[in-house]
Structure prediction request, 418 residues.
Amino acid sequence: LILGFDFMIINEKRFVSNFENLAQIGKTLDGGVHRPTFSVAHQEARVWFKNVCIQSGLEFRIDNAGNHIARLNCGLPNAPTLLLGSHLDSVPNGGKFDGALGLIAALEVLLSFKDAAIPLSVHVEAIDFTDEEGTLIGLLGSSAMGGALKAEDLLNPRGGRDNLVNGFHNSGLNPEKILNAKRNQTSFIGYLELHIEQGPILQNNHADIGIVSSIVGICSYHINFIGRADHAGTTSMDSRYDAAQGASAFTLESRKLVLQSYPYCVVNIGQMEFTPGAFNIIPELVVVSLEFRAPEEKILKHLEVALLELALECGAKYNLGVEISSLGEHSPAIMSSDFQNAFEIASKALDLKTLRLASGAGHDAQAISKICPAGMIFVPSINGSSHSSKEYTKMSDCINGANVLLHTLHILLGRNGS
Ligand SMILES: [Zn+2]
Prediction:
């Protein structure tokens, strides 16, 4: 490879050291990280990011949704902005690559451009979005910035309203101002994000870089199956109003439904809460946490109707009441074909094998795609493990991903006259 003005590469030493330093924050005994949104470790990680940005001479600000924004200012006040980003929060006992890799790579891209002292005609930002993982809402910061977040989404978030309000207050933010984070879309060229795949497709196909074509839509619901608490020993089997039966039937039937009629879709019942919850009392109430995903809006809507009808059927079968409450939706997103092609060219120049694929995981890119073109690349996850401490991506793959991101930016900015 010939390096020069037209062929930049990242500062590997700085990139690896930043990645490893960040991975120490909220580190778990088995090598992952525990950084749920607004936890002590999450706040600490954000302060670390802020300090690195400021020490490196980047502009830095925090918006009304708590997004931490580093900016390489090109010096032209009216210039458009190219956005990069990912997230520093994790699922409980998650891995150290999910989100963190993308943000460290975004930061490294800014620093590489800064080092090269190339005059730019656009501003470039690296954004740490608030609550990507859904401790509170999911894609909270990116949806707020993209304008898709609505006031009613904040009233009944899946993580609980109190947790949302207290979390914002504890971080010095006003939860009443979250929607003010919406930004003027005309000022953006686009958004690019590097992420780990979180699935096995790249590894199975011996590909280095995954170029994302689309991102799934996600809906979450609470479904309450309501029966009657009675003595578990003295109430005959045929006269019970047992909420557990409806909830369990729904769990099994929803899997069958998706397997039979909804290819490329998934359904998950990740939690059931029993009330009163004792050995010797028939469950009066079971609250089911339901989430489902589909690659297209139309299919997502179909699946939604089918699953909610199924819940009512399962309740009726066991003489139970059923209450349904929506906890939010993230619509599916198509990635920019222009950016997909730019990723392809950049990967080829770096001698890396690419594969186009759809993302079954939600990402900030889908929220930002509502206001400007968005593109994503993946690097391989060993055995597809993610949302666990087993999550692992080889450092050489992380470096490849960061270099493709940098080179793609170089291609896009070159077109923009920089
Ligand atoms: Zn992530």
In short: The mean pLDDT is 95. The two ends are 23 Å apart (CA to CA). Residues 87, 98-99, 132, 195 surround zinc ion (CB under 6 Å). The longest strand covers residues 217-226.
